[in-house]
Amino acid sequence: MREAADWSVFKWLFEKRKVREAADQANAALDELSQAIKKCWGSDLKAAYKQSAPKAGSAAAHRQQEAEPGSIDAELRCFAQKVRQADEAAQRARLAAENTFEEAERQLNTDLAREGCRQAIHSWELLEKAIRIAEAVPDIKRKS
User: Who is most buried in 21, 62, 112, 132, counting CB within 10 A?
Assistant: First the structure.
């Protein structure tokens, strides 16, 4: 991807499919790793992460989320919120890169395609950071 950010117009026209495939593979691998880590979490941490999601619109869902937080340790809730924020930052960066690639394709604009490469790399760095955060579960909470 770093190499593609410096390609000429001619090279982009013939190789852009490979860049998209590489980006899709990187996204899939990082998503799989993130999911595998979260799968190993205890039930309390999984619940805290779920509760850290933006509130659903229904009143019943809101009451349930308000009722449950007291049963989960505050440190665990804080950790889950930190992971959620890192995941959301990575997701926003990924969407920005994808939108930039789509716009570059529409316009046949290699400058935008290069920017999309830089944005994709940034999104992977953010997701790697989110994964490292998710791996750092507080030791005292691993029992649940």
Answer: 112
